[in-house]
Amino acid sequence: MTVRVLFVCLGNICRSPMAEAVFQKLVDDAGLTHEICVDSAGTSAYHVGEQAHPGTRRVLAGHGIHYEGRARQIRPEDRHNGSTYFVAMDSENREALQERFGDLPHLYRLMDFATHSNVHDIPDPFYSDNFEHVYRLVDDGCRGLFETIRANEGLLR
Ligand code: 4NP
To answer: Which residue among 21, 55, 108, 128 is least packed, with the fewest CB closer than 10 Å?
Structure first.
């Protein structure tokens, strides 16, 4: 069965697209492209249809990571019979998901999986422009999340 991972932030133009792209690369590099389905979405509809923020695209390109996605809002089908791993960028996003979907069996913050940082929330770079700092947090969290999912889902090959 395919594992689904959905990264969620407010606008789906800065943090969650970055996490989606970083995580997708980990999945692809491990040869698990067909086992793990990666996506991202926003809790708001503010930027639906837009490309990722230039700061996110710049940082990803600087790390050799390709990304072409467009912003979308979360929708009821994302729940997928409860099988989706919802991974929020901050506590506010996590609360918005809980309000929208009720209790979810897999609802986390990305930094719950970080091993080199002790922050819980990824700061919003939309106003601070601190995209490189956000990248380091996202990379740390994605590596931990990837190992957790591989172990949980029996994908350690
Ligand atoms: P994101 O960043 O949630 O990481 O995509 C933001 C993007 C847009 C806004 C806020 C945060 N906004 O207020 O429009």
So the answer is: 128
